[in-house]
Amino acid sequence: MRSGGRGRHGHGVARGPRGGDARCGAGGEGGLVVRPHSPTDASHTSLRRRTFLIAGPGAALLGSGRAHALPPANLMFPRDHGAHPAFRTEWWYVTGALRSGDREFGFQVTFFRSRVDATQAMQSKFAAKQLVFAHAALTDVRGRKLWHDQRIAREGFDIAASAQGDLAVKLRDWSMERSDAGIRCRVVSGDFALDLACTTTQPVLLQGDQGLSRKGPQPGQASYYYSLPQLSVQGGVTLQGARVPVTGKAWLDHEWSDELLHRDAVGWDWIGMNLDDGSALTAFRLRRADGSTVWDGGSFRSSQGGTYVFRPGEAIFSPQRSWHSPRSQARYPVDWMVRTPADFYTVKALVDDQELDSRASTGAIYWEGVADLFDSNGKRVGRGYLEMTGYTGRLKV
Q1: What is the pLDDT of residue 10?
Q2: What's the pTM value of the predicted model, to 2 decimals?
Q3: Which domain of life is it from (predicted)?
Q4: Residue 180 CA: distances (Å) to CA of 168, 183, 249
Q5: What pLDDT is stored for residue 361 in this prediction?
Q6: CATH of the domain at 219
Q7: What integer best gives the mean pLDDT of the chain?
């Protein structure tokens, strides 16, 4: 995750996220500060992610907990757009593809909330009972460069907050807030800034069984999970001091859970794709170290609104082309074939190097970035985000 103080991240492996030295310390009134440094060319560096569910310094602060089956989902909105502080882990994740003239961008803004079990009984107002992390990233497709920043702070003191009752999360001057008009994302970093209004065009997409999404063979391996695909985006992107107006499409995921990964899983592969005809495709799998699948799932919602939820075994990921990271030495499949009941798709990254070293915040190195979607006839039919975790070693919970 990002940090309580500002940090710009290049791509460093032995050092802090993004190639600079990272310093961790107390940040003012309860803010933990991680100060990484500036981005470099995406062909030489990379960054970013939302993989907080299963990794990072927050994980070390959390109690081990016990797996338990979640009750059936009965999600209600706008209430469930907001925070669920009784659960260990939660994230709000907006990704999208933007255009300004002939320039193309991918962006990501993610806020994570982590319940710190060890401090829940403490009476001090300084006790870090909830931590808030934030990640932001901007991929310049033409420049083949990924810009990234991150923050972390404990909730309170008007520094970090995650409201209940509706979506309103912030970490200092970064924020994600929902209103009747949609979702507003604001990020200001040293090298880039995002001010994006994401307008809802479709109803909430409940993942899994009406919002209860299994993540493994055991009943306790599950989360509450919904999406808002096909968000219409307008706003501005500022890159190295130059602001450009942008339009595009985005996707929101909101997920919360108490559960950990299945013991055999080292990480996951995930796609969230906005199709040009208004359809929405979600597919994921949890992966063993040998590349085999522990669990898979997803959904396809057609442009007419009908939704098919994939059964286990119906989302089949097959790597096609890989990219080798010179920093982490990980080999990421940046082209995939993904077989689903909807079609046999090909996923192709727009920029190979979209790797993020987040060891100074969430503790993981992972790949996440903008990608195109092609149907079984080879026609480009959509664009969205691809995420791959656990390629440098098992994600630790």
Answers
A1: 38
A2: 0.83
A3: Bacteria
A4: 13, 8, 18
A5: 67
A6: 2.40.370.10
A7: 84
